[in-house]
């Protein structure tokens, strides 16, 4: 009787001691963190590009590491801070990957396409100057936000006008040079200054969005 009463009062604590009628407590399954980050859509070669993963979160824990891979052949950057900067030395198009890790070792990933120009990118003054899924920031650059959509082919992209560029689903805003201003050309679906090198850069791809 004494053992039964003790088990009734301390059921949770003594479940592992074999108390009758007390089911063992189940450890809830760990939920992977969600990766979200803000990335420039276009940046000038030699200028510092800022990346901010502050919107990343872990539904049931804490993110302990942010891993950035910039797609230009440079080493992966692992940071305890969600904000990092990177300088691209060559014009081209790249895919930037973010991986966030929680204390249990689970990961979440996101990707954004990024273009690097020889000349300063075309400045924006309003949201309409940027592409789908992009926002115009106070520095005059268009930024991609959110989780991004990784892809390997156009068929994997959802939404009218979205195609797969550099491993990321993006919406093109031009198809030919005729749709751009006189000093611009249409590259990877975007009107950009003629100073953009059309060839592949180290670690880059000629079809990133």
Provide a brief overview of the structure.
The protein is built from 1 helix and 14 strands, in the order αββββββββββββββ. The protein has 209 residues and is mainly beta.
Task: Describe the 3D structure.
The protein is mainly beta and 209 residues long. The protein is built from 1 helix and 14 strands. The strands form 5 sheets. A 5-stranded mixed β-sheet has the order 2-8-7-4-5, with no helix packed on it. Strand 7 and strand 8 (107-117) form a beta hairpin. The chain is elongated, with a radius of gyration of 24 Å. Residues 4-11 and 196-209 have low confidence and may be disordered.
Helix and strand layout, with pairings?
Elements: H1 2-9, E1 39-40, E2 42-44, E3 48-52, E4 63-69, E5 77-79, E6 83-87, E7 92-102, E8 107-117, E9 134-136, E10 142-144, E11 162-165, E12 168-171, E13 184-187, E14 190-193
Parallel strand pairs: 2-8
Antiparallel strand pairs: 1-10, 3-6, 4-5, 4-7, 7-8, 9-10, 11-12, 13-14
Question: Which short descriptors sum up this protein?
Answer:
209 residues, mainly beta, 1 helix, 4% helix, disordered C terminus
Percent strand equals: 25-35%
Q: Which stretches of 5+ consecutive residues score pLDDT under 50?
A: 4-11, 196-209
Q: From the helix content, strand content and strand pairing, which structural class follows?
A: mainly beta
Q: Reading side by side through the largest sheet, how are the strands ordered?
A: 2-8-7-4-5
Q: What separation lies between the terminal Cα atoms? A: 72 Å
* Tally of helical runs: 1
**Mean pLDDT rating:** 77
Q: How many strand units?
A: 14
The biggest beta sheet is recorded as:
5 strands, mixed
One letter per element, helices H and strands E, the order comes to HEEEEEEEEEEEEEE
Report the C-alpha radius of gyration, rounded: 24 Å
**Per the principal axes of the C-alpha atoms, what is the gross shape?**
elongated
Share of helix, binned: under 10%
